[in-house]
Amino acid sequence: MRYFLYLAYDGTDFLGWQIQPAGRTVQGELEQRLSTMLRRPISITGAGRTDAGVHASQMVCHLNLDLSLGEMEQVTYRLRRFLPPDIALLEVRRVTEDAHARYDAVSRRYGYHVRTKASPFTRKYCTLVLETLDFAAMNEAASHLIGEHDFTTFSKKHSQVKTHICTVTEARWVRDSSFGECCYTFHITANRFLRNMVRGIVGTLFEVGRGKMEPSDFGDLLTARDRSLCGSSAPSEGLFLEEVTYPASIFEFDQ
Amino acid sequence: MRYFLYLAYDGTDFLGWQIQPAGRTVQGELEQRLSTMLRRPISITGAGRTDAGVHASQMVCHLNLDLSLGEMEQVTYRLRRFLPPDIALLEVRRVTEDAHARYDAVSRRYGYHVRTKASPFTRKYCTLVLETLDFAAMNEAASHLIGEHDFTTFSKKHSQVKTHICTVTEARWVRDSSFGECCYTFHITANRFLRNMVRGIVGTLFEVGRGKMEPSDFGDLLTARDRSLCGSSAPSEGLFLEEVTYPASIFEFDQ
């Protein structure tokens, strides 16, 4: 049987999602705890990767387990108590046998949190920006991202993807009280994301917000397809993978 | 000139407010950074103490500085950038020369945060309780706290206070979305608090919430004035000092 695990994690103390030869990763912790609990090697496949320090309020991965839904409920109960405190298991769903957490994802949504006033309680989840940011200008700039574009400008060099074309369906800053007052969140949704793309976009939008770049110039950067034009990456602590969406057909076992 | 500093801090990595011969404390960090910045020994007096791991969304302390309000603004600006990330300076107010952060405090308010569902992002600020808690019963029990009572039952042994009498003006559980869904906060306000009092009260209220104690029995515990009857202390991570209140007269310099 194939299952999707829905997870949340605090990325602060992880070297990212993907398992590595050395160092603590979310995939590594999950595979190790599941393997210990079930007494056989378990491997999981994530919907994507998050970089070191990046959080997820919803990450999805799939795994195969020869367990009925009833047995799976037991495993879920035990796993919840066995996971480290910086990973939470939100939900377990049975999916069709060929459902794939990465290839079947229809869209992904990221959130980037900014605070304009220091708070000791959100410092690991919001990027502190003490300069005044012009969010209206940043939103005008961000509107250029909507649609199907080549995102080479906002991609990392040497990334192994065949195409830099992504379709962005949402890209806007909103006031957000979820982390207290003086907080703004950038929500961006696309069918796929390139490595470093969100942090490159946010870092460049900061330059617009500080008045160092015009919103229309931001649009020109995108069409230039030149990664040397990208601003510096925004820090990892403000970035959350928020949602991964799948076609309803893979959840045919849901009541 | 005497000034009040309003502070917030994440207590996770502190041994508490009060300076100690060894170990990191909030008072110690503040005095050290202020002394370094101003190149002379600076000592501060807090409104009270918080124990190891306890947070403050608003703590107050006083200090004397021969600086005009204009010079103080400069110091505030520099101090904000010089403080460690787990302490934030919220506000600086000039007060009358004899104003005392501890003795002049009229009331203090604490908040105790509980979550009934795990979250990696609030684990350091909310206590996770996976059992079902009957908040209505806990509120019925908490109503016995209102008024002037001897709180010996909820005090630590060997505390050096002369009296255990406190006047509680607020003691109730409310649903609270500030830390996300499934969060409840216990707000308690009193003219003064004894050491361990809030955590002792909350730990005992948990027993009521789990159905192990009747709300009326909780009232009997209080009147028994017997600290052996107190439940185990609730963990420190859920506890916040939320507010310290002073008479308006000490702020005569405010416009």
Question: How is the quaternary structure best described?
Answer: homodimer
Structural class of chain A: alpha+beta
Which architecture name of the largest domain in chain A does CATH use?
A: 2-Layer Sandwich
How far apart lie the N and C ends of chain A? 17 Å
What letter string, H or E per element, gives the SSE order of chain A? EHEEHEEEHEEEHHE
- Count of beta strands of chain A: 10
Largest sheet of chain A: 10 strands, mixed
| Number of discrete domains of chain A | 2
Give a verbal description of the structure.
The structure is a homodimer of 255-residue chains. With 255 residues, chain A is of the alpha+beta class. Chain A folds into two domains: 102 residues, Pseudouridine synthase I, catalytic domain, N-terminal subdomain (Alpha-Beta Plaits), CATH 3.30.70.580; 136 residues, 2-Layer Sandwich (Alpha-Beta Plaits), CATH 3.30.70.660. Helix content of chain A is 23%, strand content 27%. Chain A contains five helices and ten strands. In chain A, strands 1, 2, 3, 4, 5, 6, 7, 8, 9 and 10 form a ten-stranded mixed sheet that branches. In chain A, α3 runs parallel beside α5. The longest helix of chain A is centred in the first third of the chain and has 14 residues. Chain A is globular. The two termini of chain A are 17 Å apart. At the A-B interface, loops of A face loops of B.
Short account of what is shown:
The structure is a homodimer of 255-residue chains. With 255 residues, chain A is an alpha+beta fold. Chain A contains five helices and ten strands.
